[in-house]
Prior knowledge:
alpha+beta; two-stranded antiparallel ribbon; 7 helices
Amino acid sequence: MKYIHKNPANEPSALKVYKQTTPKPISYSGFNDKDLKTGEKNVLKKALLEEQGHICAYCMRRISLKRSSLSRDEKSRKAMVEVEHYLSQDEFPEKDLDYGNMIGVCNGYFRGDIHCDKCKLEQRLQILNPLDKEVESWLTYSLDGSISATKNIDKVSHDLNEVLNLNCENMRLARQEAIDIARDLLKEKYSTKQWTKAIIQKEIEEWKSMDVDGKYRPFCQVVIWFWEEQKKRNRYPAK
């Protein structure tokens, strides 16, 4: 999970116009995610994708407007990004049209596993919140791709495993693969004998940053964790 900075200026004008011009009572279900002036579709989803660097607010998978199968067995296909209300619409109807309560998430299906909002449904997360600056400090990882709590252990563990199911087998393997890929990429640049703390820090900064297309790399936080752990090791000189 990666912290998301919500900027009110990123709210699409189509959503603002809908709220300002639609007779009450109004709800999110009546918003068709389309700019009535230009005809552009998916304006809200596009705004969330850009704001989050095209990764899921919960699991950090790549998300986009492209369509993918829901599972191995289903023929139906849907977009790889969905609009999630962090505070549920049922429990917090006053947040139904609040852009600050909206995040982009994946469709919740991955290689047969169900996770993220497909597990969360209307449950309230006890503590984990990608809109909280502290969220990254509450989480740590393992070389096998497992994700766990650093503090507030009971609440964080509940959210990770009982609500979001982020330690399901295929998600764990995907994070493990991300670490392996990151290590192989650095090996292509430098022999392991050449690695220094300065080189590793440069790699960390790259994983922290969006690319030229405004995208974070999938599972970026687990890779940042991995390189931070490597930087602590005495085997690597400072420069």
